[in-house]
UniProtKB/TrEMBL annotation:
SUPFAM superfamilies: lambda repressor-like DNA-binding domains. One of its GO terms (molecular function) is DNA binding. It comes from Nitrosomonas communis. This is RsaL-like HTH domain-containing protein. Residues 11-55 form the RsaL-like HTH domain. InterPro entries: Cro/C1-type_HTH, HTH_RsaL-like, Lambda_DNA-bd_dom_sf. CDD domains: HTH_XRE. Pfam families: HTH_92 (PF22495).
């Protein structure tokens, strides 16, 4: 997975998900009018592209992620790398 990969057609992603512009763009903190400009060809900033990927492609609900979760994950990765890799592999298999 390459972070900040160019998203060639956000409109196509939105339409495949069956969302209107307001629903799609609101989930990543972009106004409907801003999203409309991106769908019309305006360059999408890297941060917005990454949010679109996380929310709409990887299907991650950002409202459920807490700072403590990220801290625990980082600690697990640093202190128990084998367990972290095993858990990550299991998570991919169950997804």
């Amino acid at each position: 997975m390459k972070l900040f990969k160019k998203i060639p057609n956000p409109r196509e992603i939105r339409q495949k998900l069956g969302l209107n512009q307001l629903e799609f763009w609101n989930k990543v903190g972009v106004t409907q009018s801003g999203g409309s400009r991106y769908e019309s060809g305006r360059e999408i900033p890297k941060a917005v592209r990454e949010l679109v990927r996380l929310v709409h492609i990887d299907r991650i609900d950002l409202t459920k992620i807490k700072r403590d979760d990220l801290i625990v994950a980082a600690m697990l990765k640093a202190q128990h790398p084998d367990l972290y890799k095993s858990l990550k592999k299991s998570a991919k298999l169950s997804a």
